[in-house]
Design brief:
By secondary structure, the chain is α+β, with helices and mostly antiparallel strands. The chain has four helices and three strands, in the order αββααβα. The chain has a three-stranded mixed β-sheet. The mean pLDDT is about 85.
Length: about 120
């Protein structure tokens, strides 16, 4: 049985698409790396949305990118209000998504364990 999408899920998906476009086309900050929006979780009452992203850089740049995006959150919210037909546009909170780095670390650890099991010495 297929899972029915809640309205918050649909709005989160639309915000994700719109933010990706806004970051790519509107945010002109030379410090900003290549940002990928992975997920947007919208609160039931649409008051807040957590925006999970990754950046093609190290952790130092991830912290700086988080700061840049959170500083631009009001601009994004205003633009989302213009683009989307919502009574309430949620306040945006950007958070760096560490799950991809954690997955890479686990993959590397598994590969090392397999190699050590295969090594007769």
């Amino acid at each position: 049985m297929a899972r029915e999408f809640k309205r918050t899920d649909r709005v989160g998906s639309q915000i994700q698409r719109e933010l990706a476009e806004l970051i790519r086309e509107q945010l002109d900050d030379p410090r900003l790396g290549m940002v990928t929006i992975h997920e947007v979780r919208v609160a039931r009452d649409f008051s807040h949305a957590k925006v999970f992203f990754t950046v093609m850089a190290g952790m130092l740049e991830a912290a700086e990118t988080t700061s840049i995006l959170n500083d631009a959150a009001s601009f994004f919210r205003h633009e989302l209000g213009r683009r989307m037909r919502l009574r309430t546009v949620p306040r945006l909170h950007f958070e760096y998504d560490e799950s991809i780095q954690q997955a890479e670390r686990l993959t590397m650890l598994i590969a090392q364990a397999v190699r050590s099991d295969e090594d007769p010495n």
